[in-house]
């Protein structure tokens, strides 16, 4: 093939070295975005997210679009570098990518209608796509691309198509029009319109590009470049923007939902006055302990708390309960679990604690209570504490022993720790 024709073809197609570099950079960026989308899709599948099938087919369409532009660049690089014998490989790759992108858009249309549709129900769509792709790669005069022959015209490179090309082209176009039409009808009824619009947008862009390139191949040039290359770029930019908008909305909704769930979970496990865990949570926590037992239980009861309520009112009593809870929170370790058992009683599960450790914690607690803000001048707060070691899985019996020890501490004059035998 004479080199002048090649150069004329390249110049005519608007491809000089700078434009080629621009394209290479663009395909690098879209490849990065497409890869990120694949990672995102995998994460959605791992979380069992209902958006995952949508993202999957969209990812495939996007990867194919990137592949198409990459193939198109490779065709031009082959021409520029004089590797004319290799032109058909990237050319066929581009065509294959387009067919698979379209198959993926059709599959996307199906999953947008029903996210629960199993993958195997969508496989015929991809199977037909792969069959067409196969036709592009077989070097037989009766099939879509007849042979390794191609023409370089002032508007680009064109393969020498076989007799099947016309019917295949018409069938593809008819399918596309049918699906696009069905989607438009559904879009009117859709609740979340963004994915629909994205797909309709994709179809429209590729359809217009296909029509443009058909005219171009027939010698009627509307735009001085390949419509499909432009369509891929427009589709990817538009689709990424739409996806970003769609998922930022989904993410906002999910964050709100998670926040609500956390609030509900908190409500169910927290004591509203003290902010410590509630009795129900502590019971659940102790139920989950290993059968051989772990650590021990501190049973704390404020001394003469009734006096505070009677003399200074319930509001001050509540303030004191909050202050005591803060004292407990600041004293115990992170792995220990503290709850308000009820009234002025608190239970702390000390993980991995023997009597010595319990003594140390109890001393720190009693000191902390003594230094609480006094509710009234002259009133010093104190508590009595009972401790029992968890020797087996029967935490209820252990708590009873801690309670008995607590009563001994009260009887012995309060403001102290008693350890259950
Ligand atoms: N302010 C306030 N008081 C409460 C709350 N729940 C229980 N109480 C009061 O806590 C007091 C508990 O008193 P007791 O533990 O029986 O007795 P005490 O006065 O602490 O005396 P000893 O335990 O024998 O040292 C009662 O007066 C209850 O009304 C609460 O949520 N807020």
Automatic annotation (TrEMBL):
Enzyme class, UniProt record, top EC level: transferase
Keywords, ordered alphabetically: Membrane, Transmembrane, Transmembrane helix
Gene3D superfamilies named in the record: 3.30.70.270
PROSITE patterns: GGDEF
Record-annotated membrane-spanning stretches: 20-45, 52-71, 91-112, 119-138, 158-182, 194-211, 223-244
Domain GGDEF: 293-421
Record's keyword annotation contains Metal-binding: no
InterPro entries: Diguanylate_Cyclase, GGDEF_dom, Nucleotide_cyclase, Rev_trsase/Diguanyl_cyclase
E.C. no: 2.7.7.65
The keyword Aminoacyl-tRNA synthetase is assigned to this record: no
Catalytic activity: 2 GTP = 3',3'-c-di-GMP + 2 diphosphate
Name of the protein in question: diguanylate cyclase
Organism from which the protein derives: Alloalcanivorax profundimaris
């Amino acid at each position: 093939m004479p080199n002048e024709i090649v150069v004329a073809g390249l110049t005519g197609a608007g491809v000089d070295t700078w434009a080629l570099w621009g394209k290479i950079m663009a395909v690098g960026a879209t490849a990065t975005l497409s890869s990120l989308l694949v990672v995102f899709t995998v994460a959605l599948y791992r979380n069992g997210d209902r958006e995952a099938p949508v993202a999957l087919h969209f990812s495939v369409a996007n990867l194919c679009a990137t592949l198409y532009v990459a193939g198109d660049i490779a065709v031009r690089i082959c021409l520029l570098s004089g590797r004319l014998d290799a032109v058909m490989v990237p050319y066929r790759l581009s065509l294959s990518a387009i067919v698979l992108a379209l198959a993926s858009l059709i599959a996307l249309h199906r999953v947008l209608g029903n996210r629960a549709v199993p993958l195997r129900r969508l496989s015929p769509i991809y199977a037909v796509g792969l069959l067409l792709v196969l036709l592009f790669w077989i070097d037989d005069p009766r099939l879509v691309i007849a042979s390794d022959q191609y023409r370089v015209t002032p508007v680009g490179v064109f393969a020498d198509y076989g007799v099947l090309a016309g019917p295949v082209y018409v069938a593809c176009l008819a399918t596309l029009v049918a699906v696009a039409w069905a989607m438009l009808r559904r879009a009117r009824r859709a609740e979340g319109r963004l994915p629909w619009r994205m797909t309709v947008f994709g179809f429209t862009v590729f359809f217009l590009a296909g029509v443009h390139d058909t005219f171009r191949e027939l010698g009627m040039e509307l735009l001085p470049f390949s419509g499909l290359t432009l369509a891929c770029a427009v589709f990817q930019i538009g689709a990424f923007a739409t996806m970003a908008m769609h998922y930022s909305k989904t993410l906002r909704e999910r964050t709100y939902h998670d926040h609500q769930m956390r609030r509900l979970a908190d409500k169910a496990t927290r004591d509203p006055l003290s902010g410590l865990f509630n009795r129900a949570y502590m019971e659940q926590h102790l139920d989950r302990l290993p059968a051989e037992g772990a650590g021990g239980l501190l049973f704390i009861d404020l001394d003469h708390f009734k006096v505070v309520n009677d003399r200074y009112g319930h509001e001050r009593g509540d303030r004191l309960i909050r202050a005591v809870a803060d004292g407990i929170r600041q004293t115990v370790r992170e792995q220990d679990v503290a709850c308000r058992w009820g009234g002025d009683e608190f239970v702390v599960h000390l993980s991995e604690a023997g009597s010595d450790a319990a003594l140390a914690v109890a001393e720190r607690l009693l000191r902390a209570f003594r230094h609480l803000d006094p509710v009234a001048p002259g009133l010093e707060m104190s508590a009595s504490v009972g401790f029992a070691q968890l020797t087996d899985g029967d935490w209820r019996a252990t708590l009873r022993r801690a309670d008995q020890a607590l009563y001994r501490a009260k009887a012995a004059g309060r403001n102290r720790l008693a350890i259950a035998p």
